[in-house]
Every structure is written in C-alpha cells, then in structure tokens.
Amino acid sequence: MKMPNKFTYLALLSIICLLLLFVALGCSEQPAADQGDMDTYIIGDEEGDWGYPSPYGAYPRGPGYVRMSYLFDTLIWKDEDGFTEALAEDWSFDEEELLYTFHLQDDVKWHDGRPFSAEDVVFTYEYLEENPYPWFDLDMVEEVNKVDERKVEIKLGKPYAAFLNNVVGVMPILPGHIWEDVEEPEDFTEPEAVVGTGPFRLEDYNREQGQYHYEANPEYHLGEPVVERLLMVKVSEPHLALQRGDVDYAMVEPEAIDTLEGAGFVVEPGLHDWNLKLMFNHQEQPFEDNQFRQGLAHAIDLEEVVERALRGHGLPGSSGMVSPDSQWFAGQEKLPDYDYDLDTARGKLEELGFTYQNGSLKDHEGEPLKVEMLTMARFSREGELISGQLEELGLEVENRAVESSVLDNRIRNWDFDLAVTGHGGVGGDPEGFRNFMIGEASPHINARYEHSELEDILEKQARELDETSRQELVTDIQKIYAEELPAYTLHYPTYYYAYREDKVDWFFTPDGMAMGIPMPLNKLALIE
Amino acid sequence: MRKRVGDYILALLIILLLNFLLPRLMPGDPITAMYGDAHVEMTPQMEAHLLERYGLDGPMGEQFVIYISNLFQGDLGYSFYFNAPVSEVLLGALPWTLLLVVISLFLAAVVGILWGAESAWRRGRRFDRASLVAVMLLNGIPGFVLGILLLLLLGFFWPVFPISGGASPYADYTGIARMADISRHLFLPALTLTLAQLPRNFLLMRSTLLAVKEKPYVFTARSKGLKERLIRYRHALRGALSPVITRLGMSVGLMFTAVLFVEIVFAYPGLGHLFYLALQYHDYPTIHGCLLIITVCVLVFNLAADLINQKIDPRLRQKDARQLLE
Fold first, then answer.
1. Which residue of A484, B241, B279, B299 is most buried, as measured by CB atoms within 10 A?
2. Which one, of A317, A330, A313, A304, lies nearest residue A276 by Cα?
3. A66 CB contacts (<8 Å, ≥6 apart)?
4. Mutate to test the interface with B, among A208, A211, A237, A513 (most CBs of B within 10 A)
5. The predicted structure's pLDDT at residue B229
6. Directed axis angle between helix B271-280 and helix B86-121, to 10°?
7. Tens digit of pLDDT for each residue in A107-164?
8. Based on C-alpha coordinates, what's the Rg of chain A?
C-alpha cells in the first residue's frame, strides 16, 4: 500500500482489460451453430443431472430411467400400440402353469462385442433379487430357467397381472460377464457399468454440467439409430434455448406454446399421469364420515381451480383418481360426480347435524367448524382457492403453505385436518393404485383407507389375468373410491413438450414408458 | 495473532457440530425425499437395505462419531442422492462456484469502492445524485429478475452470449478456445452477480468516506498542501476501507447462497444448486460437505479481511489501540 494511486490505476486497468476480454470473447463465433447438423440431436432438460446412467446409478426418477433405457434393453418394451419386442422377439403365457416363455432375439451383441444369451437373462433375475432394485419387487417370481440358448421361462409363484408392465418391461437385462463380480452395484461406475445392448453407448457423463453424450450403436438389433450423436444437456430457459437452436427438444411452459408453434416447433401436451389431491384426515371427526367428505367435494369448484391456478392447462380431477388418459379410466359417467353446488354441499353437512347460520357452519355444540389446511408450497395458489371455496361453504379454514418435507411428515403422522399434495402414477398400471388408496406404503401420499371391499378388489385385480375382467374390477375400484372419497383428486396438470419434427418424430407411449413414465422420450422414436 | 487463529479453530469445531445436527433436525427423512416418487416400489426390505447403506441405521451419537472420525481422515462420506463420494461431487462443482464468486466479488468490490468514493467526494453534485439513483434502482431489482433481464437482452434479443451452462456441451475445445468458451459462458452469470453485489459496496463506501472526509487528518493533509489525488486515495480512502473490507469478508457466506439464483437462471454448474438439491433430498453427507466448504471459505475470507485491515490500518496492529478503538 505504499503507492495507493498506482494500485488504483492497476485495478482500474485490470477491470477494463477483463471487460474488453469478455466483450471480445462474446462477439466471437457461436459454437452452438456447429452442433446444428442432422447427426447430432440435443435434448434439453432443466435439471440436467439424473445420475450415472447405469441401472443402479440413475436416480430413481423417470428421466433417470429414460437415460438408462437408451443404453440397456428389457425383454419387452412398449411402442405407441402397447407391448412390442425388445430382447425377446415373442413371448407366451401359460395361465395354468403361470409360466411365461420368452423367445430371445438372434445375434444380439453387448456394446463390448460379446454375444447376448439366455444366461444373461437368468443372471439378471438372480442379481436383481439379491441386490434390491428400486423400480420393482420380484416377490411373485418363483423361478427363472434357461430352456436353451434362445429361450427363457419365468414361473410365477402367484398370478400377477402387472408382470409384463411392471417387471418384464422395466427390468434392464445386465451382461452377466460384467456384473457377476460386482458386489456393490450402486458404487459400480466403471465404464463397463453402462455396457448394455441398447441403441446408444455412453461416451461421457458430466455430473456438474448435467450433460450426457451418447453415440449411436449402429449394430442395434431393432434398427439403426436415426442420429449419430445424442446429447442431453442442462438448459435454463428451455423455450429460449429451443429458439436459439441450442437444443432440439425440451419440456416447455404453457406460455411459450404460441411462440414456439409460430417458430415451427411441434408442441404436444403430455399424458396426465400426475394428480394434485385433497387429503382428509379420515381418522378423526368430522372427516371420518364420507358424507362429510362428499359435502366438501361439492363445495370445491374444480373447473375454477384449473382455470385460475393452472390458467386452463390441466384437467379437472376425476373422483376415482385414475387419469382420464389411462386405458384403465372408468369413464366419468360411471363415477359419482361432485358438481360444484353449495346447496347440495350444505345439505350433506346438515344431514350430519351441522347447522348453517349467518354464513358459518356450526357443529353439534354450536361451535364454528374450524379446520387447518396444509398445502405444499408449490401449490399455494390451489391452496388459496380451495380454502376460499370452503370458507364460502361456511368453514373457517386456516390455510398454511408448508415445505414438502413438513407436509409429508405431518400427513404420515395423521397430524393434519386437510392437506393438498400430489403424486404421479395415476396413469400407469392399476397395480400401483393400491399404494395411493390402502395399506401403509408411501404414507405421505397414501389415503391409507380401511375398507374391506376396496381392499379385496384391489387384491383381486392384481391376480386377474383376463384383461376384460380386470378392467371391470378396476372400474369397481374407482367407483368405490369415488363414493368413499378417502381423498379427492383436484386436477391433473398438463405438461408440454416441444421439438422439431424434421429430426425425430416423438410419440407418447400408452400408459407411459416402462412402468408408466409419461414422457415422449421413447427410444423407439430414435431408431429407423 | 495466535489467539485469533485459536478462535477460528474453536468456531470451526462448533460449526461442525451444528452442521451435523441441523440437517438431521429438518422434518422428513432421506428415504421419503428420494424415493417418495410414485413409480418406485419401496418394500420394507429395500428400505432396510437403504438405511444400512446410508449408515442411518445406528443411533445419532454413533453417526456423529463416525462422521467426525471419517472427516479427520479426509473422508467426507458418500452422497445418498448423487451416488458418489461427497468429495468427488464437491470437487466437481467447487471450481465453477469459485470462478464465479471470486470474479464477481473482486469486480463488485473494486467497482463499488471506486465508484462509492468518487460519489462521496462529489456529494450533492450531479454525478453523486445520478449515481445514487442508479444504485438504488439496481438495489431494488431482485437478483434473479436482473439475471433474467440480462439473459433476455444479451442472450436472446441480441444473442451474443450463451444462456446455459458453464461451457459448450461436447464442443471438443482445447486450450485457449476452451478458456474463451468458459469465459463466454461466465460473462452473464458474473455480470449478474457483480451487479447484485455492487450497490451495498457502493453505499457502504460512500457513507464511510463521507464520515472520513470530515476527519481532522484529512483536514491536516489538505492544509499541508498535498495534491487532491493523494488526499483522496492515500489518506481518506485508506481510512474508509476497513469497514468495506470487513463486509466483503462476511459477505462470502452470503455469496454462496446468492450464487444459487444465478446458477438456476443460467443453469450454471456449481455448489449452490448442489446444496439446494442436497437439502431437498435430505442428502446429509452432501449437506455436511457443502456447509463445511462454506464454513471454511467464510472463516478464511474473514481471516483474510482481518489481516488486510491490519495492513491497511496500522492502529489495528497495536493491541492497546485496538481496545481503544473498540
């Protein structure tokens, strides 16, 4: 500090230099342009990082599974029409014996050049049983046998209707020659951990940047990939990134639809697999009575919630919970409809002994009816609307927006009156519905209702192998659920996906990819 | 001096204990936060497997002992969510954050100090009034709004800078080209963070200098007939620098949280977003690691601020005088 003036000049000079450097750099050529050729396809994603795309390394979320599915194959997969061949070219089922037989494809090679065989299938089953895999449970399988080099039999211990959808169509087949010595599959992140039979090979994964670099596998047994290079990168404003040409595909906000369509992008609404619901603490009065819950449902204007909270980008809830997009949806005409009607609502409550005076509902002792409603902070808009509507009915509602872990915890401990929360999986296989309705699994999103008939039918549909009969059972489930109303589905938000049609023609998989991932990123769209 | 370093070590130990306890006091648990997704089949067997794998099956005291003993062996643990050693996860993100934070801190400090000083000397004149209005306006815009504005202006309407990431994805640049690429990606995030930090430095410098301006030693310097530039920069500025430097040292901790919005707006890699995800998924080892880095940075920068202050202000070097000042 002997010469402060010199120091000052130096500092000033360095700032100017830095600024000049940045401006000079900023004006130099745009590297994004050289990735715009036909052979590179870039998928943009706001989160970016979904884990190392090995079967055990990918994060337990849909996008993590999708990244893994480009490298690994299952025995069967789904296209726009339902189940289709993958590593198995066809399959059959012996209902008497509960025996699935899979005929495997010829000449399939692992990315390292070794041939794929029936032994790998048997190995995978044994490996997954020993090292629990988050996507499914293998309880129902009795044994898996190799019949010959191209034939595998899987025998079930009990009938399980969702076996193809929830297990066979989800289970990535692992190369036995690589995984046989792997003790800790989650820690296995060597390059061999991503050797699969899939249409792409992993070139690079960058966690910090949230980037994946895949190269096409020209020998892919179902056809050659239509792009040579597939990148998945993290982007901040997806609709701007699309228009700048930084990416070819991204999920976008509804506000950007018109602009993007004007710029030549295809924008498609996704499948409605996610629902926001109002949970009742039916362990306590006054919510114990389903007539009370029905009364509240009549006081909620779902159309208004969709219109005002989602600006119209969503579907109003179905009282049976199941998504209207699902093949398992009962149809609204078969379910009780809780039309918005305050008189009906009050009528239901008055039958239970509540009285309505001077705009307020009173209980048997003449005390005003006060409830607390917890709302996941992300859905505070919905929370405000619903508490407003319930106040209209005459309840005193204290609406509290809370962080999701607080909400999960209080729901789990039955420490709430009303709660607004949500979950996906309402458009997938009915086997998953059980965990939102009965039992103790996932208590933070599960209504945990006790109802012997509902429990029986949920159990029965899991074992019903005839599709038509199963459909009837699933319709009955929705009818009972809607009548009992252990929780009330408020809406299914619509998510939008935008992409350029000239490169890859994405499609939606009925009831979602694999166990029900409601995104368009099916790998079959990427092969010829 | 030795006492001072001792204080810092004690502070570090207390903070380590708090860092361990606080995340575990958050409501909720890692298993629900990470696997609460509807598509995942959580069987009791799977849950037991995960608890054991994450080392969450023992009592809290035992977990703390394991954490501390591992820490002293240089092992930060294994991240639940990222499925990798915490040190690896942190080391991947840290350089990006440091690059962003150090450059913005430096720019915001230098520009803020000089601008604030010039403004103070011209108190009440047009330059000062215009500067105040500009700074107040800047101060009033929330950081993320500023980021989005810059992104729209310089990334979209006049697309000179990239809007996402720390470098072009898989562009295979090497050497100078790679550095240039990184700088281009750094420009908008660094500019945003600098502008967001600038007003406070400016205002503090301006108000401190206004007080110093009236001090007798400035009057003395002036009556000695010293040149105006010398009075301003060697005498007055030096006297006013101390609180600004202390504030800069303290603001490093805040910078790590401020950097979060920049990382989100520009999809920039770094610790902020990592910390956010770790909190969201109750990934205790990663939370501990992030907090540890922030703690160490805050302590180091505070120590540095202390040392610089002593260098600038000789009065702080003498114990008696320091007590007198306090």
1. B241
2. A317
3. A50, A513, A517, A519, A521
4. A208
5. 81
6. 120
7. 999 999 999 999 999 999 999 999 988 888 898 999 999 999 999 999 999 999 999 9
8. 27
**Chain A: closest CA distance from residue B212 (Å):** 17
pLDDT band for position B10 (50/70/90)? confident
> CB contact, 8 Å: B233 with chain A?
yes
Residue A515 amino acid letter: M
What the block records as the tokens of A220 is 């892919």
Name the amino acid, one letter, at B310: Q
Q: Please indicate whether, in this complex, the C-beta atoms of B38 and A423 are within 8 angstroms of each other.
A: yes
CB A488 within 8 A of CB A293: yes
B183, B184, B187, B190: CA torsion to nearest 10 = -40
Cα angle vertex B117, ends B116, B119, to 5°?
65
Q: Does B182 touch chain A (CB under 8 A)?
A: no
ipTM, 2 dp = 0.84
Which tokens go with B239? 């006297």
- Provide the H-helix boundaries in A427-466: 434-437, 452-463
Cα(B109)–Cα(A7) distance, rounded to whole angstroms? 14
Residues of B in contact with A46 (CB under 8 A): 267
Q: Residue B21: exposed, middle, or buried by beta-carbon count in 10 A (0-12, 13-18, 19+)?
A: exposed
Instruction: Indicate which of B106, B170, B263 best probes the interface with A, i.e. most A CBs within 10 Å of its own CB.
Output: B170
Lowest mean pLDDT among A20-29, A411-420, B201-210: A20-29
**Does the CB of B32 have a partner CB in chain A at under 8 Å?**
yes
Using DSSP bridges, classify how beta strands A275-280 and A487-493 pair: parallel, antiparallel or unpaired: antiparallel
* Least Cα separation, residue A26 to chain B (angstroms): 6
Is residue B168 classed as helix, strand or coil in its secondary structure? coil
Asked whether the bond before A368 is cis by omega within 30 degrees of 0, the reply is no
* pTM (predicted TM-score): 0.88
For chain A, domains (ranges, CATH) are 39-70+190-264+496-526 (3.40.190.10), 76-179 (3.90.76.10), 275-493 (3.10.105.10)
In three-state secondary structure terms, A105 is coil
What pLDDT sits at residue A29? 39
Closest residue of A to B281, CA-based?
A405
Which residue stretches of chain B are H helix? 2-25, 30-35, 44-53, 60-72, 86-121, 126-140, 143-151, 175-213, 216-223, 228-230, 237-265, 271-280, 284-312, 319-325
Q: How far is A460 from chain B (nearest CA, A)?
A: 19
Tell me the nearest-neighbour CA distance from A371 into chain B, angstroms. 22
Q: What is the pLDDT of residue B240?
A: 84
Backbone angles phi, psi at B257, to 5 degrees: -85, -35
- How far apart are the C-alpha atoms of A55 and A123, rounded to whole Å? 14
Looking at the DSSP bridge assignments, the partners of residue A507 are A521
Question: Concatenated DSSP letters for A307-361?
Answer: HHHSTT-EEEPPTT-S-TTSTT---GGGS------HHHHHHHHHHTT-EEETTEE
- Please give the single-letter amino acid code of residue A154: I
The residue whose two tokens read 């799977």 is: B46
**Alpha-carbon span B271 to B258, nearest angstrom:** 11
Average pLDDT, chain A: 90
Rounded Cα–Cα distance for residues A518 and A5 (Å): 64
Closest by CA to A221, choosing from A81, A72, A105, A369, is A105
Sheet of A396-402: strand order equals A314-316, A487-493, A275-280, A418-423, A370-376, A396-402
Q: How far apart are CA A112 and CA A217, in angstroms?
A: 11
DSSP state of A213: E
* Two tokens, residue B198: 């600038």
